[in-house]
Design a protein that fits this description.
Blueprint lengths: L1 H28 L5 H24 L1 H8 L3 H27 L2 H9 L7 H10 L3 H17 L3 H25 L4 H32 L11 H29 L5 H32 L5 H24 L3 H9 L4 H13 L3 H18 L3 H24 L4 H37 L1
Length: about 425
């Protein structure tokens, strides 16, 4: 258990630092001109579209943690990362700087007219995002694999500091639109973190990766694609949730209010979900060790209880009003909408912990197809409920979106639990034999 905590807490700190980025940004943008328009443009267009574009390389963190075991494997993974980063950056520029943007924002998402042009400006500023994300996550996986998870947390702290500087400049000058500040914070932070991680990994590559014993079965393009393609498909499908959700919320009652509140509520929930996201790489890295399966299960139960109890306490007390009103700077009507959304979202942090535990076990087995299967189940359930909400048209989009998210996560987690049982059972039998 001590080893689990030592590996987990720097990663959790990293995710938590990253999770504070969204609330910080929302709090400042809410205090600039036209806050609802700019928050809706960020949450309804810029962030979901940027996430979809980067989806094929977002799982490089898990892939690098699992596969960067020797120098040959590292070089092959780095080559893939570089090529994919260039292709996705070109795709991002095509969407942001050509008429293709209107096909996406107006034709597919159906965004309200007020947020279309601010959304395009924000997407232009986010151009470095995809390559920086791939480079950062790939090298973070190497650091985790070779026992340097604390460096990941420090890198995210640097990212947070860079973003805070941009926020301070944007708030104090007050001359730039909120969407420029929001996109500038995220883009600048990610690039600074990528630079730090690239420098920090160099001695690890020289002293550990180059010296590591070559794996018995060298990594080939075929084996890598068999391993990574289901992960990339899962990431792509998961990123579709954002634009699908934005499109649905744009067609429900109180569209602008729901889109504005969605970006703030989802950023707040990410603070709690980050503890579960960090657990995925812990499971991947440690499940090989003797008697790890039982300890990992106990620690997951602790995280589920902790995140659920803390979120319940906030939702049931004036702390929610303080957060959404005084800290996030939302108007009273949006505060009431966001507070109601927290009650709907109560199961989300705990489900995230369980989902990442089962997902980590499947990635550890290097048979990753069940992860894509589970994401397809999630997307079908989530989309069906969003469609029903649009057809009914009687409930604010925020509540429908959060309900669909909860039901989808529940079904996804159940499928991953079922598909990970043989892996966990085999490890428990191994431990009993030892």
């Amino acid at each position: 258990m001590r080893r689990i905590v030592q590996t987990w807490w720097p990663l959790a700190a990293s995710w938590l630092f990253m999770a504070t980025e969204g609330p910080m940004m929302s709090a400042v943008v809410a205090r600039l001109a036209e806050p609802e328009i700019n928050l809706a443009a960020w949450g309804g267009i810029v962030f979901p579209v940027a996430l979809v574009i980067e989806a094929p390389i977002i799982m490089l963190l898990s892939a690098s943690t699992a596969l960067s075991r020797d120098w040959g494997s590292y070089l092959k993974l780095r080559r893939f990362m570089m090529h994919a980063g260039v292709v996705l950056t070109i795709l991002h520029m095509l969407v942001a700087f050509t008429p293709l943007y209107y096909v996406v924002a107006v034709g597919l998402i159906g965004a309200p007219a007020e947020i279309v042009e601010p959304g395009r400006l924000g997407l232009m500023i986010m151009t470095p995002w995809a390559w920086a994300i791939g480079y950062r996550r790939f090298n973070q996986g190497v650091l985790i694999r070779f026992g340097h998870s604390r460096a990941v947390g420090l890198g995210t702290l640097i990212r947070l500091g860079a973003g805070a500087l941009v926020l301070a400049i944007g708030y104090l000058t007050g001359t730039q639109p909120g969407i420029v500040v929001a996109a500038g914070v995220i883009a600048c932070g990610v690039v600074c973190e990528a630079i730090y991680v690239g420098l920090r990994v160099r001695p690890v590559l020289r002293d550990q990766v180059r010296q590591a014993t070559s794996v018995a079965q060298p990594l080939t393009l075929r084996t890598f694609l068999e391993f990574y393609t289901p992960l990339a498909m899962m990431a792509l499908l998961s990123m579709l949730i954002q634009p699908v959700g934005s499109a649905a919320l744009s067609r429900m009652p109180h569209a602008i209010e729901s889109l504005a509140a969605w970006s703030v509520v989802s950023s707040f929930l990410f603070l709690f979900r980050s503890l579960g996201y960090a657990y995925n790489e812990v499971v991947i890295a440690l499940l090989d060790e003797p008697h790890a399966a039982r300890s990992l299960r106990r620690f997951a139960a602790f995280l589920v209880a902790l995140t659920t109890i803390v979120l319940l306490t906030i939702a049931a007390t004036p702390l929610a009003t303080i957060w959404f009103g005084r800290i996030s700077g939302l108007k009273p009507e949006l505060v009431a909408l966001a507070r109601g959304g927290l009650w709907v979202a109560l199961p989300i942090p705990g489900l995230t912990v369980l989902l990442k535990r089962y997902e980590g076990a499947i990635v550890h087995s290097q048979r990753t197809r069940p992860i894509t299967e589970a994401m397809v189940i999630f997307l079908l359930a989530d989309s069906a409920l969003l469609w029903a909400g649009v057809a009914w048209g009687q409930v604010a989009g925020l509540y429908v979106g959060l309900t669909a998210l909860v039901i989808g996560l529940l079904m996804q987690t159940a499928w991953l639990w079922r598909r990970s049982r043989p892996v966990v059972r085999a490890l428990l039998i191994r431990d009993c034999g030892n």
